[in-house]
Design brief:
Elements lengths: L1 H5 L4 H16 L7 H13 L1 H9 L3 H17 L5
Helix pairs in contact: 2-5, 4-5
Length: 81
């Protein structure tokens, strides 16, 4: 997640993190995701509105990013903007 803050528009990395968390949820692990939740919240405040605007203007990359970002919210158990 720390790398995602430096490369916040990297959809491929966002998908990779989602896939990692999906697998972790299958395994009997007790994950502490508070740091990842804080990073998510920061990105939701800073980047999500910009990406939403781009998606509404027809930017396909922004739409894909938003979809992955919303999926990440489910794995982190936080509300999506």
């Amino acid at each position: 997640m720390t790398r995602l803050t430096r490369h916040s528009r990297e959809t491929k990395l966002l998908h990779l993190i989602c896939e990692f968390l999906r697998v972790c949820h299958i395994l009997p692990l007790n994950l502490n995701v508070w740091r990842a939740q804080n990073i998510y919240f920061s990105m939701a405040q800073r980047l999500y509105p910009k990406m939403k605007g781009l998606a509404e203007q027809g930017d396909e990359d922004a739409r894909v990013w938003m979809s992955a970002f919303e999926q990440l919210s489910k794995f982190l158990k936080v509300h999506s903007p």
